[in-house]
Design brief:
single chain, 436 residues, alpha/beta, Rossmann fold, three-stranded antiparallel β-sheet, globular
Length: 436
């Protein structure tokens, strides 16, 4: 009797072993959990399960079969804006579910904020103020002259008033943001068929799972694209995914994984070439006590100002109109604001050794030599001893600019991290500035 009982118990354990073996084949290591001794329950959090190479193959196959059979054999697990029904995220997160990360990530928008008319006027005034104030008169590029001309024609009327509808939908139409700024990320388009869009969506979800071999599963599970600008996205596991979001995730992960950001003292992060603020939005969740100074050309900052206000309606955001009378006292502004949005000339007013982290992703290597040299010199000037400089840029020269192998970094840096994990295959580098 004792032998029989022992043998029956071994059968229960053998079931657990089979499930563990299945998990080791299908899931990445971070998604393999210790199972109950006898019940061997599967992990109840689908948001924490990321597929291995074999798992991704079978996931892609399952989704393809679901697509061609129209959900008759398997059910599709991805929804696409413009093709599928609109998902009500507020209702979706009324309570928890095995399919969602719960509690809801703060990166998931469930409501559209109300932006006061006065803020739109501040955006316009700050743009015009920056546009008419270039103290350095540096050569940018003929390409940016084109961008500037097309930009003003789209976003401003003949009276220099913002066309709000265009601003509020700046990511909705690829002919606007994509064409003007040469955005290389794919868009969901009405010109594509549903089949093509879904096949592209499968590829993106597979990339999302593949990144789990490098990125913390908690960060991956928390990510979701902002609804600001009405960018069309795919929906998966209760979040909005885009390829550009994954690129912003790389920058955020590199920084928060290798820099010990303080929860007590006020740290200053300078993002040179911030774009519309996608990386800054993600980084803010992990550096709530920091002041982020976002620097770019006036046309881009026009979008940044709206994007930040949409995502952070309760945070303090300073535009050029706010800081222009206080350029000689920027340290006081840094203490007072969560975000400071500045055009290039304001960089001259930052005090020496006043910045903890300088970030540049995919832009320094695409600037004129004059601007590149200027930013490298200013980075050396404003960065504290022991501060960090992060770069995600190509190493080789091109028709667009100078690769990082030919930069004069000005300061001495100790390499803290090197990676090669982003969509553009540009090396990621994080250096710590040594004391002069």
């Amino acid at each position: 009797m004792t032998y029989l009982k022992w043998f029956k118990q071994r059968l229960v354990f053998f079931r657990r072993i089979l499930i563990e073996l299945y998990n080791q084949i299908i899931y990445q290591k971070a998604s393999q959990f210790i199972l109950h001794r006898t019940k061997a329950h599967r992990c109840p959090y689908e948001s924490m399960l990321f597929y291995s190479l074999i798992g991704r193959f079978f996931f892609g196959l399952k989704e393809f079969i679901a697509l061609i059979t129209k959900d008759k054999i398997f059910k599709k697990s991805i929804k696409i804006d413009g093709f599928d029904e609109v998902i009500d995220y507020e209702m979706l997160y009324k309570q928890g579910s095995n399919k969602l990360l719960y509690p809801k990530s703060p990166m998931i928008n469930t409501t559209k904020p109300s932006i006061e008319e006065a803020y739109y006027e501040k955006i316009a005034n700050s743009f015009l103020l920056a546009y008419n104030h270039d103290a350095n008169e540096k050569d940018i590029s003929t390409e940016w002259d084109r961008i500037s001309t097309e930009f003003r024609a789209i976003f401003f009327d003949e009276n220099n008033k913002i066309i709000k509808e265009k601003l509020e939908n700046f990511r909705a139409d690829p002919l606007v943001y994509g064409k003007i700024f040469n955005n290389q990320y794919p868009y969901i388009s009405d010109e594509d068929t549903y089949v093509k869009s879904y096949l592209d969506a499968i590829d993106l979800v597979l990339e999302y799972h593949r990144y789990a071999s490098k990125i913390d599963k908690e960060l991956l599970s928390s990510l979701s694209e902002s609804t600001a600008g009405n960018y069309r996205t795919l929906h998966y596991r209760g979040k909005k995914l885009t390829e550009q979001l994954l690129q912003h995730m790389i920058v955020t992960h590199d920084l928060v994984s290798h820099i010990d950001f303080s929860s007590e003292k006020r740290e200053v992060i300078l993002d040179i070439g911030c774009g519309f603020g996608g990386s800054a939005r993600l980084l803010s969740a992990y550096t709530p006590n920091a002041c982020q100074i976002l620097l770019d050309l006036p046309e881009t900052l026009f979008l940044t100002a709206y994007y930040l206000k949409y995502n952070f309606p309760n945070k303090k955001i300073a535009l050029l109109e706010d800081i222009y009378p206080h350029l000689d006292n920027l340290d006081e502004m840094i203490e007072a604001y969560d975000f400071i949005v500045i055009p290039p000339f304001v960089l001259d007013y930052l005090k020496p050794k006043s910045v903890d982290v300088v970030v540049n992703a995919s832009s320094l290597a695409f600037m004129s030599k004059e601007y590149l040299d200027y930013y490298l010199k200013e980075t050396q000037r404003v960065l504290k001893d022991g501060g960090y400089f992060y770069s995600l840029n190509t190493t080789e020269d091109s028709e667009w600019g100078i690769g990082s192998h030919n930069w004069d970094y000005q300061a001495n840096y100790l390499t803290i991290y090197q990676g090669f994990d982003n969509r553009f295959s540009y090396p990621q580098w994080l250096g710590q500035k040594l004391k002069e």
